[in-house]
Specification:
Structural class: mainly alpha
Strand content: under 5%
Number of helices: 5
Number of strands: 0
Order of helices and strands: HHHHH
């Protein structure tokens, strides 16, 4: 993947993420103001790249966590959050290849 393609993908996935977040926020009834809590350790771009690295290399979440400076569970949660969004944008053949390889490894 070329750098320009990566930037376009990140832009599109971020836009989709923001749309889904806005839709989710519109449905909530809040007593306490939003935007509280701890800030994420990884930027949206880094989270998307973490997911793409996993899709490309099928490494463990422990190694991904070390590479990106987060815990294994955070790497896993990040991947599982972004995968459905990427499935909407990426060709299904790529996602199916990853799922087949994961089944073979388990």
């Amino acid at each position: 993947m070329k750098h320009e393609q990566l930037q376009i993908l990140i832009k599109n996935v971020t836009r989709l993420h923001n749309e889904k977040q806005a839709l989710s926020e519109a449905k909530k009834t809040r007593i306490i103001a939003g935007r509280g809590g701890r800030k994420p350790k990884l930027s949206l771009e880094e989270q998307i790249i973490l997911t793409l690295v996993y899709l490309r290399h099928l490494t463990t979440f422990q190694l991904l966590g070390i590479q990106f400076g987060v815990s294994e569970s955070t790497a896993n949660d990040t991947f599982n959050y972004w995968l459905p969004l990427l499935e909407e944008l990426l060709p299904s053949s790529l996602i199916e290849q990853v799922k087949k390889k994961n089944l073979m490894l388990n």
